[in-house]
Amino acid sequence: MIERLRSGDTAAFEPLVAPYRQPLYGLALRLTRNAEDAQEVSQEAFLRAFKYIRRFDVERSFKNWITKILVHAARHHAHKRFRQDRLAAADPVRERAREEAPERPESDHERRELRSRLMDCLDVLTPREREVFLLRDVEGLNIQETAKVAGGSAVSVRVHLSAARRKIRDRIKLRHPDLLERIS
Amino acid sequence: MTCRAATSKIPLFVGGELPASKSENVRRHIAACPECRAEADEIARARLAVRDLARAEETGDWSPDAWRRVISAVTGTGIRPKPGWAGARLRPLLAGGLGSLVLAAGLLYIIRSSRLVEAPVAAMKTESERAMIELFPPAPKADPDVTSVTLVSPETGLKIIWFYNRKFEWQGFGK
To answer: Is residue B11 included in any domain, yes or no?
Structure first.
């Protein structure tokens, strides 16, 4: 499929990325904490993957490659969002419009509750800790893969992972002790 | 292994990321230490709890329409060609050369600006200050080859220092 795409058959792109569309969107949602941003970030990741497919080394994992693109896109988006938010804070009209923007309707109350608790746990982490925690403990990548995808050394990943797990334990103990009791 | 050493390793121990020898040390320690065992148990359960939450959350998926729009928007753009031999080989060299140039320019700027700070001081001196400098030139900077002789008047307390170079030639004096 990659060879077909590289030779110019753009129809090969959709079946190539379709298996990853949902996991990547999920990861983007947890990294950005916002459905709209998650869609933008995943779209950007697909766009970059398509553009640079000729640079992909077929000896490596396509999933890890596209996940790395997504993590970088999310990081870039966070910087952009930070600048926009600073501008919005200086503009009371834009700020009010943001505040009044309706939330996306969530049909399932339980799902909303789960998301809120998950986000509450992840909120205590720094962006870097969040990245390594999600990649290692939620996505199941090993330390070396996490280091390649998130950038940095395996030692740095271990340090951030260790801090993240400790912070999450503290948050769960403080705010969601029932979650600990559920795990036997 | 002390509790302090074990505690720092517990978050990685529960995820199986420690090398075998360290992991064995931590395992032996927590088998004997109830506090560290409780700590390891909590961190392990918190890790699993978040993973289970994430799996149960069901983040949703693109609607068929949205997905079609994304794919057509993406495939509407062109694929970038892979950089050729020259591009792949020369790009790091060019980047290195440019980086060195920027570094050299920065160093040059720092050196020039530090000289500029010293140079205008003399021009800024007033007439009377220049006369004073001629009469009482500033003491040479500390140099291990400079010898000085200090004369102190016991009546007035006036102190004069004579400076000589390595050949014991008089260089100047200070007060």
So the answer is: yes
**Interface probe with B: pick from A166, A167, A170, most Cβ of B within 10 Å:** A166
Chain B residues inside the 8 Å CB shell of A51:
77-80
Quote the CA–CA distance of A84 and A98 in Å, as a whole number. 12
Residue B131: partners with Cβ closer than 8 Å, 6 or more residues away: none
Of residues B42, B48, B81, nearest to A173 (C-beta):
B42
Q: Identify whether B162 is part of a domain.
A: yes
Q: What is the mean pLDDT for each group of 10 consecutive residues in chain A (184 residues)? A: 77 86 88 86 90 85 92 89 70 45 54 83 91 91 92 93 94 87 72
Q: What is the CATH number assigned to the segment(s) A108-184?
A: 1.10.10.10
- What residues of chain B lie within 8 A of the CB of A35, using their CB? 60
Contacts of A30 in chain B (CB under 8 A): 54, 59
Pick the CATH number of A1-104 from 2.70.170.10, 3.90.230.10, 1.10.1740.10, 3.30.230.10: 1.10.1740.10
Can you spell out the DSSP letters for B8-24?
A: HHHHHHHTT-S-HHHHH
Confidence check on the interface: ipTM exceeds 0.95, yes or no: no
Measured CA to CA, the distance from residue B76 to residue B91 in angstroms comes to 28
Q: Work out the end-to-end distance of chain B between its first and last CA atoms, rounded to an integer number of angstroms.
A: 65
| pTM strictly above 0.90 | no
CB A140 within 8 A of CB A147: no
